[in-house]
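Async update (no meeting this week)

Hi team, since we skipped the sync, here's where things stand on the single-chain job. The sequence we agreed to prioritize is pasted below, unchanged from the tracker. I ran it this morning and attached the output directly underneath so nobody has to dig for it. Comments welcome in thread, and please keep replies under the output.
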Amino acid sequence: MTAVIEANGLGKRYKGRWALAECTLSIPAGRVVGLVGPNGAGKSTLLNLACGQLKPTTGTIRVLGHEPGDGPGQLARVGFVAQDTPVYAGLSVADHLRFGARMNPAWDHEAAQRRIERLGLDPQQKAGRLSGGQRAQLALALAAAKQPDLLLLDEPVAALDPLARRSFLHGLTEFAAEREGRTIVLSSHVIADLERVCDYLLLISGARVRLAGPCEDLIAEHYRIVGPRRAASALSPHLSVVQEDHTDHQSAFLVRATGPLPEGNWQAERPDLEDLVLAYLARDRQTHNSQDREDLR
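Output:
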């Protein structure tokens, strides 16, 4: 099946700063993708490139087999909820539904109505008087009723309390299950949320893709190994060290393994998704800090 999002050497530059650089990836259809990375990593830039709101500085990106934003047909197949969950403060909930119906040829009015009723939203309530969680749910209801093949969500739960966040994620999983082959890309800082709903991970740090693949496969490739103290350079070359910690007598490594683990007095366990993400982010931060110190010399 053709990749839903495929990028080759993709980059976006703002004045003298690269917001995204050398991005090459291929996201398959039917996945719920967790997009994770620190602030300024390039996550929002990637999503805005994918929906056609930005144009690349270098490289290429294709979405659903076409250039992003390539005509009304392409736009109708992609839903996008921006970081501030945009709704129109002066319009009522019902006004939003009517506006969505006029703007989207595949609009599912009954599905939108069901979501609004299930959420307990008053159709006559102005969006500006809704809570942050209600506005986020309204934005998701509008995006879902568009019936897109690809839904892009840029940190939609960042400002929500735990209950509102859980409700939003539940609605998201329902939407994903409604049609086979539908793809969702969810950007979030809350890794526990990604573990709950996502089956594919895309980690961006320092404007570059650092890790990508099905969550189960990525976890299966990594181990936390603990054993007698030794330098990382003493490990087998098929153990790529992501993170290391040492005491006087013991060493602990998080490694990506392409061969057998060390034998002898070594213990091994699988990391969870949060451990994996944090290890890669910590490594990139340490590398970045080391480069900064070198630049100052």
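Quick observations from my side:
The chain has nine helices and 13 strands.
The first helix runs from residue 43 to 50.
Reply here if anything looks off.
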